[in-house]
Design a protein that fits this description.
Layout: H1 2-23, E1 33-37, H2 40-43, H3 46-54, E2 58-67, E3 70-73, H4 80-93, E4 99-104, E5 107-108, H5 109-117, H6 137-142, E6 147-152, E7 155-156, E8 162-164, E9 169-173, H7 180-184, E10 194-198, H8 217-231, E11 237-239, H9 250-255, E12 259-266, E13 269-270, E14 275-276, E15 287-291, E16 298-300, E17 302-303, E18 307-310, E19 314-316, E20 326-332, E21 339-343, E22 360-362, E23 365-369, E24 373-378, E25 383-387, E26 399-407, E27 415-420, E28 431-435, E29 438-442, E30 448-449, E31 460-467, E32 472-477, E33 480-485, E34 497-499, E35 511-519, H10 525-532, H11 545-548, H12 552-582, E36 596-598, E37 604-606, H13 619-634, E38 639-640, H14 641-648, H15 654-672, E39 678-683, E40 686-691, E41 696-697, H16 698-706, H17 714-724, H18 738-762, H19 766-779, H20 784-796, H21 800-818, H22 826-834
Parallel strand pairs: 1-2, 1-11, 2-4, 4-6, 5-7, 6-8, 9-10, 10-11, 12-20, 36-41
Antiparallel strand pairs: 2-3, 12-13, 12-15, 14-17, 16-19, 18-20, 21-35, 22-25, 23-24, 24-35, 25-34, 26-31, 26-35, 27-28, 27-34, 28-29, 29-30, 31-32, 32-33, 36-37, 38-40, 39-40
Helix pairs in contact: 8-21, 13-15, 16-17, 17-18, 18-19, 19-20, 20-21, 20-22
Length: 837
């Protein structure tokens, strides 16, 4: 019995070991293959076949014609079966070789199936049913299924041997960079696990592909890294035509970059589409992979309409040991979250989300509909004034508008208006309408029209969704996505919006409306589907103190925790006073985790309860806060109200400006109540920021440090670095008035960090030098001192290849920006700056 138990234990141990090895095995989708085009000339080239044999990161692409139930290589007499024999020879000579084969073909796919099934390689083919995940490369080798066929073209019938490429891979062309919207609109392709780049040898570098050498690393590698980042997929297949010998450096260079990999999941499945607040990422599927360049810090902020993310942000630094995969959980939001308007039109114009407001209109009435009960009737020239668009969070923000509507007279040439205003000017006019019967999303010369054609006397559920991060304008009919367009800047109008009228002269609804909803966020597709089924939205009230303290145990725990916090705070205050008395400047400031607002990097606000409330700051509220903070530091009186009006509401009627400013200031003050020791005061025509500890703002602290008339000490420089290492000042915000402040601050950051890096270099603190250099390059990517410090750190860490790659990237960027080659080579560059720093 003991022997049997030991034997079972041994088998279990072996099984666990194999499982561990397999869990760390590299997936097929983590590989990169260089794909060579085999034409009639290359077919007879021993050089090509020897190259393919000697390199395990290669594949082939074929143009195949169908002739009399047979198949031949295009423009030749070479049979498809003879090519299969050559492929068989490649895998026979190396038992670890995996070879992808791409076939361009039009015709009956069963012809190819028959030829492949009769060949000697038929038992070595791997086929993955659509929807399943690609296995590890170890599995393919052990199962001896090392040949993978893909097909593309006008094919008939289905195959169990060849994968239809468009169903398995996202494709882009390096020769013609298609606008982002072409990819965003392909909902089915973005979630494909594989990624193929076509015509890589035709990348417009200005250099003949035949002359490509190691000096061209940056041009080609940066394109691949940018594409990898943009779509969250490592390039798996890189097609290089007949230039494969010129690009033998590509795969090893690409593989030298580590990757951040992970999944964004909701209940039971990966999300199909994930957006990212990072400006260099376009859109990904639920499975993602991003490269890390030069050990840089990476900050990833995923989002998806209709979900909150946990964690909301991933911060990856070169000190961290990264897991094989990150897991991000997407939690469905409640439909009531961020809702600004709920109109049921039950014999009144009551907004259930703001019941105290009143609304006026003309020509409207309420009617009994046989399907929907009481509805709003809006004949020609009738409308309802909903007031200031800021009340609904529409300007400079994501939003969603949803309603049921029935038209009695759809105009063949003209607009049936659902929601709009009478303001002219780019981005200032809003018209959510039917245009000649087609649902239309208009923001004045910034528009999208769907192909769907609606009919008279039919109830439709219509939704318009705008996502500010991607500029997406999307339209849904009856819960079904019918089209979108991307890259649109946000709506910025300020005039009143109306139900049943819009820009066009005489544009009216001419019909009925029911259940109008407006959100200050983009709804998810599933939420929109639920709305189309008439799901009722329940407004969630915040629980009162009585519900919160529902048990004695909770009361005791909270009181005890509060007392502990009081003791800790008292201790820290005593310690701080002691520190001030002794004037000890040797300590480096440690940023608090709560009751703070962060300006360096992306704007972030964490209230006194340690809750991230960044999303509470709408774009205009955020702008008012930042403008007031900056000017309160520059001028003890604060920000002049006239300057605020001219800057934040330029060109708007004075009466409306006063109203808009009052509404925005009121919203800001309500948010700041969640923070301790900060407020906005109105004082003699100025708005003034009043704050004290424990409130913390990194920009305020850096401003105070920079007021020091003497050179900063080492601890002060390290404190300065801690404050600014989050990234560029207010990253992602593009207000014109901010440019001068950002430029001035950037110069201060560069000067101070160069001093700190020089100190670290003398002490040979390699990691510290690299971190500081990377932060300088955030502000000035052509800063020669920072490039030198970065390459010095890499060389000291025995990574000379990456040091040269970074220098070559800098040279390419320098020439593109300044129109002339950089004057020093790598050796001259390192010698020159080693004497200065």
């Amino acid at each position: 019995m003991n022997k049997r138990i030991k034997y079972i234990g041994f088998l279990l141990g072996i099984f666990l070991l194999i499982s561990m090895l397999n869990s760390k095995a590299e997936d097929f989708s983590d590989n990169t293959f260089l794909i060579a085009k085999v034409s009639s000339y290359e077919y007879g080239s021993n050089r090509l076949w020897n190259f393919l044999k000697d390199n395990n990161w290669t594949g082939i692409e074929l143009d195949i014609d169908s002739v009399n139930n047979d198949a031949i290589l295009k423009n030749s007499s070479y049979s498809f079966s003879s090519i299969l024999e050559k492929i068989g020879t490649l895998v026979d000579e190396d038992e670890a070789k995996i070879i992808p084969v791409f076939i361009n073909y039009s015709g009956n796919i069963h012809v190819l199936d028959s030829i492949i099934n009769q060949s000697e390689i038929s038992s070595r083919i791997f086929y993955l049913p659509q929807g399943e995940q690609w296995p590890s490369q170890e599995y393919l080798v052990q199962a001896n299924r090392r040949i993978i066929f893909f097909v593309e073209g006008n094919v008939q019938n289905e195959s169990r041997i060849l994968h239809h490429l468009n169903e398995y891979a996202l494709q882009i062309s390096a020769s013609r960079l298609t606008p982002n919207s072409a990819f965003l609109s392909r909902e089915s392709n973005i979630n494909r696990e594989l990624f193929k780049i076509n015509n890589f040898h035709q990348l417009p570098t200005g250099v003949d592909p035949n002359l490509v050498n190691s000096n061209m690393f940056p041009e080609y590698i940066n394109f691949l890294l940018d594409s990898w980042t943009k779509f969250g997929k490592k390039p798996n297949f890189i097609s290089v035509g007949n230039k494969i010998y010129n690009f033998d450096f590509i795969v090893s260079q690409l593989n030298s970059f580590p990757a951040i990999k992970g999944l964004v999941r909701t209940v039971g499945k990966n999300l199909e589409r994930v957006y990212w607040k990072n400006p260099d990422i376009l859109i990904t599927g639920g499975k993602f992979s991003f490269p890390i360049r030069g050990g840089e810090e990476a900050i990833l902020s995923p989002f998806a309409p209709g979900y909150s993310m946990t964690p909301a942000q991933l911060i990856i630094t070169n000190e961290m040991v990264m897991p094989d995969n990150y897991s991000i959980l997407a939690h469905p939001l409640d439909l009531s979250q961020e809702i600004k308007a709920i109109f049921h039109f039950d014999q009144s114009l009551t907004n259930s989300a703001d019941p105290e407001r009143t609304y006026e209109g003309r020509g409207y009435s309420f009617s009994q509909d046989i399907d929907r009960g009481t509805v709003l009737k809006l004949p020609e020239n009738a409308n309802v004034n909903l007031g200031d668009p800021n009340s609904y969070g529409l300007p400079n923000s994501s939003f969603t508008v949803s309603c049921f509507v029935k038209f009695t007279d759809i105009l063949e040439f003209g607009d049936n208006a659902i929601l709009g205003n009478d303001e002219a000017g780019y981005r200032r006019g809003m018209h959510l309408v039917l245009r000649s019967g087609h649902p239309y999303f208009g923001l004045w010369a910034n528009d999208f029209m769907s192909d769907e054609l609606l009919e008279n006397n039919v109830w439709y559920h219509l939704v318009w969704r705008y996502i500010i991060e991607t500029g997406e304008q999307a339209i849904f009919v009856n819960g079904r996505f019918i089209g979108s367009s991307d890259g649109h800047p946000p709506y910025s109008g300020s005039s009143d919006i109306h139900i049943g009228s819009a820009l066009s002269a005489g544009a009216s609804l001419r019909g009925y409306m029911d259940n109008l909803h407006i959100w200050n966020r983009p709804l998810g597709n599933e939420e929109i589907t639920r709305l189309s089924s008439d799901e009722e939205i329940q407004l969630n009230e915040k629980p009162g103190n009585q519900d919160f303290f529902s048990s004695n145990a909770k009361q005791i725990a909270i009181i005890s925790f509060s007392l502990l916090i009081v003791v800790i705070i008292a201790f820290l205050l005593l310690r701080r006073k002691k520190t001030k008395r002794t004037q000890d400047t040797a300590e480096v400031l440690v940023k608090p985790i709560k009751n703070q607002i962060q300006f360096f990097g992306e704007f972030k606000a964490v209230n006194a309860e340690n809750e991230d409330v960044s999303d509470c700051f709408t774009p205009k509220v955020k702008e008012l806060l930042i403008f007031t903070v900056i000017h309160s530091l520059k001028n003890n009186s604060g920000a002049p109200i006239n300057d605020i009006n001219d800057t934040l509401w330029h060109g708007i009627d004075a009466k409306k400006v006063a109203n808009n400013r009052a509404v925005t200031l009121n919203k800001l003050r309500k948010i700041l109540v969640q923070f301790d020791s900060i407020e906005i005061l109105s004082n003699s025509g100025h708005l003034q920021l009043n704050w004290k500890e424990p409130f913390f703002c990194d920009y305020i602290e850096t401003f105070k440090l920079c007021q020091n008339p003497e050179e900063l000490t080492r601890p002060q420089l390290e404190t300065f670095f801690e404050l600014v290492k989050g990234g560029r000042l207010l990253k992602g915000l593009t207000w014109d008035w901010l440019d001068d402040i950002r430029g001035f601050t950037g110069n201060q950051v560069i000067d101070n960090l160069l001093m700190l890096a020089s100190m670290y270099k003398k002490e040979r603190k390699i990691k510290e030098v690299e971190k500081v250099a990377r932060r300088i390059l955030d502000y000035d990517d052509l800063n020669e001192e920072a490039i030198y410090l970065q390459t010095w750190a890499l060389q000291e860490a025995n990574n000379s290849n990456l040091a040269k790659f970074n220098f070559n990237s800098f040279c390419s960027k320098y020439e593109k920006n300044l129109g002339e080659p950089y004057k020093l080579n790598f050796k001259e560059f390192t010698r020159f700056y080693s004497e200065r720093l």
